[in-house]
Design a protein that fits this description.
Keywords: Phosphoprotein
Family: Belongs to the myozenin family.
GO molecular function: actin binding; FATZ binding; telethonin binding
Shape: elongated
Helix content: 40-55%
Number of strands: 0
Protein name: Myozenin-2
Radius of gyration: 25 Å
InterPro entries: MYOZ
Largest sheet: none
């Protein structure tokens, strides 16, 4: 803990234990994080077609390189 904490050690331990119980769900409650959101392929490709970010520019460069050597594949 921080040297500037004004709580006594026993109180800090009680707070830490309560947070730990909440995080680990010891009291029977569980946190519902929902479902994983899937992004449609067309939206992803649209994002990659933009020139506004570095990732899409790198994707385009890689596509051009792969089109340059269409028959080459990596073998392990």
């Amino acid at each position: 803990m921080s040297q500037f904490c004004t709580m006594p050690a026993g109180e800090r331990k009680m707070h830490a234990a309560a947070i730990s119980r909440e995080v680990h769900g010891a009291n029977g409650d569980t946190v519902d994080l929902g479902i994983k959101v899937s992004t449609p392929k067309d939206i992803m490709l649209e994002e990659l077609s933009l020139q506004s970010n570095r990732g899409s520019r790198l994707f385009k460069m890689r596509q051009r390189r792969s089109e340059k050597y269409p028959g080459k594949t990596r073998e392990h």
